[in-house]
UniProtKB/TrEMBL annotation, chains A, B:
It comes from Podarcis lilfordi (Lilford's wall lizard). It is a multi-pass membrane protein. Residues 458-575 form the STAS domain. Keywords: Membrane, Transmembrane, Transmembrane helix. This is Sodium-independent sulfate anion transporter isoform X1. NCBIfam families: sulP. Pfam families: STAS, Sulfate_transp. CDD domains: STAS_SulP_like_sulfate_transporter.
């Protein structure tokens, strides 16, 4: 009795642990872990603050919304996340999607966060994580590469200080080149300098040799300095640019486009806006939802895709397991709660997750430090953000998205599997039209490529003893294939006039649907009209049941070819005798022979 | 030489005949055919005129547009059609779609016709008729049943003379019941009378015994009178209702809602409107196209679906063949040319095709008579249309769509194949939201049902000699299945700690995509981390080529199980010796054993 209750308690605890993964690592937490988590959390924090400002601008929202979006994920993921490395927060792709679906209006962005959170939670509870299986690698690559180009180019106008450039990519390229003469020199110089500095620091980081305990202390310290500088490069560059702008401000002139006034303090905790008052009247919840349209499917799914893809990549690299449905719940909760503190939709960030992993984070507790850092900057630093030049933030974004563009994939697919270039190219090019169309088109095209073998199965056609046609579909028999099968039969029976028996071998057919049964029933009738017989052999039990339930007129089936042939021969001789007798009433109504 | 040129001429003529099917029947045309075609053409004409007026109202356009849409199809189909029975023209479903996508504005309707025609022509030239294969029977049934309910209910408000009822189905039901008190008694009485008359005449027609030459002449004549009356019932009922309304008009009072003034004369031949001038400024071609959105896919596809479904049904009944791509061309041309004479999109009409077939039409020439009749009524009868009560037209539509509702299909699918109820119900219920969503959702759901076996293939898992896991996927290995395969391997290797070799048998894998290769490559690395070995056997040539081109790290393959086991055993004993020697450098980097 006691044993059983113990067992039950164990199982309950297992379930709770599965849903609250923090319980797995917290009891084992040690001082050494704390040390490493602290460093990682600080480093990620120094990356997320400048990125948050930049991504808010990319999403078309005031900069403080970037910071509002950056801390909830840290706290929630610490409790619910299954990967030690992943950090949730604003990302370039999500900001791009928000800029499409929130119409540069915080109310829409926050409502989108709330609804995305609810949808992700529902998907997590319904175990819909498997939907990701239908997004193939070429579609992901096509999408991320196109997004990198779109986002990167989107920042060129900010880097050059151009104003009033349209949002649509093609128009953006056109107008940016048209109005390149209006470039603000100071913005362009500063922007390019920041870009160069960021690229240089990144290169430096990559070329640092791996730390080796054998080397003298001085070498190791200098390596550490370089590594730290390079890792927090975003914060350093933005800080430097801000100082430059501040110096100009003090001297009385300001050549740069600045971030401007940012409201100080933490966001208030309030319900997300379920309706919006505009000068033209109130827009109801339904109206807002309708306006966001496909965004309500694209944003939650892309959020999920980014998080799970990143979690899987780092789990595989660092050799641990993640649970996609639990990730979905973690992200859903983050967005759901985030919408109460004016966050826009967040997801896993590849760049910051990499920083987190490289600084040697041990548990999701590192996120707590990051979150606190973001809260502190909201509380005390917003007045400083006034001086950050927009061009510097643009440089941060360009450097963040550049590695997402992967030109090699085109070559790789050409070498390995050319057919996969189709979904890749479709996704890539449609994404320049509208991101969501690219993803939808890519998924549809890869779906069609999957369905092709179902719609056009290999059908073995043999002529057997002159007057019998033997037909055997290689795989299942589903509705898209039925017209094709009928055409095959039709063509053969029309070209070979001496054929009079058709045997359909369903040995490989493990399942059949109603449309296919109906098509076969029509084929049966058509052949009866033409005085040809059609018999079925090798029907598996569940397929036979469907045929019998459908009650096909003139349906004959036999276990195997031998029985079918024997029966057909008997009928033949039977009819032969009947014809000799001069009577034709013996012919079955289904017209077994011509 | 002469023989060859003769052969070439023959072949050319064959191709021309295929594209201009009129050449097949015209040379054989006889006086007897003319007689039957004449009767059929007249009968269809007497059906199409009242229906055209009613469908124009359903489409939300002035009534003359129904007639404008009714004659081009007759002429074009006579030249290009491959079925003797099909008649093209306005239909209930197409009118419903037009009312969704043309916003009750003739300019949009005509542009939609033009673009649908172009799309259908392009589809015909590209032989895209096969796309119809992906619309399964449950989706078609769900759509037509829902459309019948929607259209039928849509007419209730007209039948009762209610005004200002919203278009959306749910709201329509709600408001119709709310405001049933505002019913105009005269409209309701006349409408219900027409409905009863039409239903009664239809019942009469169905109960006429088949004509029998043995019966006395008087019986045969009376049967003919009843049959004719019942067949042209639409025209008779509308005529009667018009006469009643006219009598009231003469006496000075008018209790009915009338059709009102209809512009006289034939439509002018002019370019379709490629832009529109509104009080708020000009809407460009791009703006109009964007506003119609999904309609540009739904309208051409549904048009094609209706025509081909009807053509196939009658071809099978009357035992002839049709060519779906040629039907597509015929309909594309009809819509393309129709847009120059202010037609809205047309397609094959089931009701009128049935009338055509029943009156014994012999060739598509019957359509010529129908077309001339429509032109004559446009030229001379429009002043008479003023007096047609709208309630009578509503009754015509309700009787036309009632047979489209098929409640039995729910029961049939429950009996035969319950899984097919899913796409049926999804289509049926989504259609009440918006018709296009219903069709799209239905096609997607049936696509997912098709993809399920690809995403979750049966995988045979056997343990072999204690330490070897043998895994064999039953079908192909495509990207949606790869995560599932990895999970299967992961679970088995985690639960059975003594396993150290995994053999993946790809005998049944005839094709593989890049995502799947990448997934296997990641699995390979993951297993190497865990010191497990994975080898492939039974790779077909084309699959092996993909693997080799991808250059997987640690990829080992063998022709069959025996070779694989032999090699694994050798490595085992090899390692055993190495361990005895106290050296571990002999272990391959891929870590063949634990």
């Amino acid at each position: 009795m006691a044993e059983r209750s113990h067992e039950c308690r164990e199982r309950c605890y297992g379930i709770i642990q599965k849903r609250l993964p923090v319980l797995k690592w917290l009891p084992k937490y040690s001082l050494q872990w704390l040390q490493l988590d602290l460093v990682a959390g600080l480093t990620v924090g120094l990356t997320v603050v400048p990125q948050a400002l930049a991504y808010a601008a990319l999403a078309g929202l005031p900069v403080q919304y970037g910071l509002y979006s950056s801390f909830m994920g840290c706290f929630v993921y610490c409790l619910l996340g299954t990967s030690k490395d992943v950090t949730l927060g604003p990302t370039a792709i999500m900001s791009l999607l928000v800029s499409s679906y929130a119409f540069h209006d915080p109310s829409y962005a926050i409502l989108l966060t709330f609804l995305s959170g609810c949808i992700q939670l529902a998907m997590g509870l319904l175990h819909l994580g498997f939907l990701l299986d239908f997004i193939s690698y070429p579609v992901i690559k096509g999408f991320t590469s196109a997004a990198a180009v779109t986002i990167g180019f989107n920042q060129v106008k900010t880097l050059l200080g151009l104003q009033n450039i349209p949002r649509q990519f093609i128009l953006q390229v056109y107008y940016t080149f048209c109005r390149i003469g209006e470039t603000r020199v100071a913005d362009a110089v500063l922007g390019l300098f920041c870009l160069t500095a960021l690229t240089g620091l990144q290169q430096m980081k990559e070329s640092i040799p791996k730390a080796n305990r054998m080397e003298p202390l001085s070498v190791r310290i200098s390596q550490l300095v370089v590594w730290t500088t390079a890792t927090v490069r975003n914060a350093l560059v933005v800080l430097f640019a801000g100082l430059v702008a501040y110096s100009f401000q003090v001297t009385g002139s300001q050549p740069f486009t600045l971030t401007g006034v940012t409201p100080q303090g933490l966001p208030s905790f309030q319900l997300p806006p379920f309706s919006e008052v505009t000068p033209n009247g109130t827009i109801s919840f339904g109206g807002m939802v309708q306006k966001m349209g496909a965004g309500l499917a694209v944003v939650p799914l892309m959020g999920l895709l980014e998080t799970v893809a990143i979690a899987k990549a780092f789990a595989s690299q660092n050799n641990y397991q993640i649970d996609p449905n639990q990730e979905l719940l973690a992200m859903g909760f983050t967005n759901f709660l985030g919408s109460f503190i004016s966050s826009f939709p967040v997801t896993g960030s590849f760049g910051r997750t990499a920083v987190n992993a490289q600084t040697g984070v041990c548990t999701p507790a590192g996120g707590l430090i990051t979150g606190v850092l973001v809260l502190l900057s909201l509380a005390f630093l917003t007045s400083v953000f006034f001086y950050i030049p927009k061009a510097a933030l643009a440089a941060v974004i360009i450097c963040a998205v550049a590695p997402m563009f992967d030109a090699r994939i085109f070559y790789t697919l050409w070498q390995v599997k050319r057919l996969d270039l189709v979904p890749l190219c479709v996704t890539f090019f449609f994404c320049f039209w509208e991101v969501q169309y690219g993803i939808i088109a890519g998924v549809l095209v890869s779906g069609i490529l999957l369905l092709y073998p179902i719609a056009r199965p290999r059908i073995k056609v043999l002529e057997h003893e002159q007057e019998t046609l033997f037909i055997q579909p290689a795989g299942g028999l589903y509705f898209p294939a039925i017209e094709f099968l009928r055409d095959t039969v039709r063509k053969r029976t029309q070209s070979e006039s001496r054929l009079c028996n058709i045997i359909l071998d369903c040995t490989h057919v493990s399942s059949i649907d109603y449309t296919a049964v109906l098509g076969l029933s029509e084929l049966l009738q058509e052949l009866q009209h033409r005085k040809l017989s059609l018999v079925f052999i090798g029907l598996q039990t569940q397929v036979l049941q469907v045929f019998l339930a459908a009650g096909l007129e003139g349906f004959h089936h036999f276990p195997n070819l031998k029985d079918a042939e024997k029966s057909l021969e008997e009928e033949l001789s039977h009819v032969g005798e009947a014809l000799l007798d001069g009577s034709d009433s013996i012919l079955p109504t289904s017209g077994i022979i011509q």
